[in-house]
Amino acid sequence: MTKPELPTPNQNPEQDNFLLRLRTKNTDSSSHAATVSSYASYWEADHKNGIENTDQTVAERRKGSDSLTNHFYDMVTDFYEYGWGQSFHFAPIYKDSTFTQCISRHEDFLALKLGLKPGMTCLDVGCGVGGPLREIAKFSGSKIVGLNNNEYQVKRCDFLANKYGMTRLCKAVKGNFEAMPFPDNHFDAAYAIEATCHARHLENPYGEVFRTLKPGSYFACYEWLTTEDYDESNLTHKRIIHALEEGNSIAKLYTIEQCLQAVKNVGFELVEYQDLADPRNPIVQSAQQPWQTPLKGSYKLSFDNLTNFTMNPLGRFITDKFVWGLEMVGFAPKGTRQVSQILNKGADALVEAGDLNLFTPMFFFLARKPLETEVVEH
């Protein structure tokens, strides 16, 4: 399924207000509607024929992953910032910490594992609008180069870096992480946060990271993967994961085993790895709430719950009805409600997958590119 290139919806990276962004998109509502329709078309066959056998549609989505993911982020970036913040990822939710603290700690953990310090240049693979990029630059003093194939997010990332006075350490580059626009042996370190799950095959971005890292340098990653509790032959499991994939622009999730093998296949030495969301981990059991808690919702009265109201089911329901009304009166572009419903479907599936431990959004690994004199056995 090869999709034609569509006009990019009108978007202004300098607008911080969610309503103004919707109004800007509505100045060319046909482009926005076409983007939403194109994204939805990748999933139509599964809805029509059932999910018992999705091999063909998975292959088609992987083949069209560039368009699939670009269309997705043109649709959802404004919703993400409004509902979640500027760091588009999950984190371990410690009981004594705010959501923002947990997000920042999760990012800073990578800087520590990579040994980042002033004078180093680090690659952020799939940088979104640069929330992690700016945090890691502030924490480590390193220069962070973000790579992103979505033009709107690249412009938004650079605008925010300038807004917050971070341009000396932060910049974004438009490019495909399966064919990076960087020379060999260029970066001192690299990381990816919940981004490479959009790749056709994990070996593609991992291989490009390997190529562009200097020998002896490290790559740290938080990967989206199915766990050993996921049973592909269980249709209930498959329905949940399929809905998660559709709501998050993933052709098909890989397993933990496939991820680790992909790291080795491209030449990396695996230094360490663990599922930071594993409910069997004693620290997860005793000190944390489940990673999906922000989406599942907690109605215990607290300042943190009030500030994160947009994440929980009631907040998402209100947002959905609100944007439906805006679309009906012609303020928001056609397809806005459909985007909201896609995201809500994905959020509900994430909660189900988390409750059953079918999926982890934070499988962590640290890998090292060997020195040229070293040989790694696979």
From TrEMBL:
<keyword id="KW-1207">Sterol metabolism</keyword>
<keyword id="KW-0444">Lipid biosynthesis</keyword>
<keyword id="KW-0808">Transferase</keyword>
<keyword id="KW-0443">Lipid metabolism</keyword>
<dbReference type="InterPro" id="IPR013705">
    <property type="entry name" value="Sterol_MeTrfase_C"/>
</dbReference>
<dbReference type="Pfam" id="PF08498">
    <property type="entry name" value="Sterol_MT_C"/>
</dbReference>
<keyword id="KW-0753">Steroid metabolism</keyword>
<dbReference type="Pfam" id="PF08241">
    <property type="entry name" value="Methyltransf_11"/>
</dbReference>
<comment type="similarity">
    <text>Belongs to the class I-like SAM-binding methyltransferase superfamily. Erg6/SMT family.</text>
</comment>
<comment type="pathway">
    <text>Steroid metabolism.</text>
</comment>
<keyword id="KW-0752">Steroid biosynthesis</keyword>
<dbReference type="GO" id="GO:0005783">
    <property type="term" value="C:endoplasmic reticulum"/>
</dbReference>
<feature type="domain" description="SAM-dependent methyltransferase Erg6/SMT-type">
    <location>
        <begin position="72"/>
        <end position="370"/>
    </location>
</feature>
<dbReference type="InterPro" id="IPR029063">
    <property type="entry name" value="SAM-dependent_MTases_sf"/>
</dbReference>
<dbReference type="GO" id="GO:0032259">
    <property type="term" value="P:methylation"/>
</dbReference>
<dbReference type="InterPro" id="IPR050447">
    <property type="entry name" value="Erg6_SMT_methyltransf"/>
</dbReference>
<keyword id="KW-0756">Sterol biosynthesis</keyword>
<keyword id="KW-0949">S-adenosyl-L-methionine</keyword>
<dbReference type="InterPro" id="IPR013216">
    <property type="entry name" value="Methyltransf_11"/>
</dbReference>
<dbReference type="GO" id="GO:0006696">
    <property type="term" value="P:ergosterol biosynthetic process"/>
</dbReference>
<protein>
    <recommendedName>
        <fullName>Sterol 24-C-methyltransferase</fullName>
        <ecNumber>2.1.1.-</ecNumber>
    </recommendedName>
</protein>
<keyword id="KW-0489">Methyltransferase</keyword>
<dbReference type="InterPro" id="IPR030384">
    <property type="entry name" value="MeTrfase_SMT"/>
</dbReference>
<dbReference type="GO" id="GO:0003838">
    <property type="term" value="F:sterol 24-C-methyltransferase activity"/>
</dbReference>
